[in-house]
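Aim 2 progress update. The chain analyzed this quarter is reproduced below.
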Amino acid sequence: MSSLRQRVGAVVTLAGVAAVVPSVWQTATHITDETYRAPEARHGEGHVQYHMAREVLISAGSVGVLVMGALAGQNRSRAVWRGMAAAAAGIGAALWSGGPTTGVWAPNRKALLIHLASTTGLGVGVALLRPKAGHR
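Predicted structure tokens:
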């Protein structure tokens, strides 16, 4: 893989990571926000917040994989790249899950732009970092 493609792929991937941080942070703030408690929830009023905490922690792990993979340079194996692709796909799916589940793709225009920037950056960046066939 060319050095230029490596650099561009890493920068675009890291830009996608940077773009998703506000969304993850927003979710993290809901964990302790009393207005996000759901007294009618079958598993207890804090159950929704438990899921928010779980999402934030899964996102942190996914971001870690993406950053490590982006910074691996020529040492990035196909297995690491596959992990990056899975992490990027998971983040993208989570960001757009509101549409099919609630009918709302993003709560506001700023969130929509964040979702677009992060999924585009992660998708394009990870695609650019795909190792050549035969690379271990």
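The chain has a mean pLDDT of 94. The CA atoms of residues 55 and 94 lie 9 Å apart. These observations will guide the mutagenesis experiments scheduled for the next reporting period.
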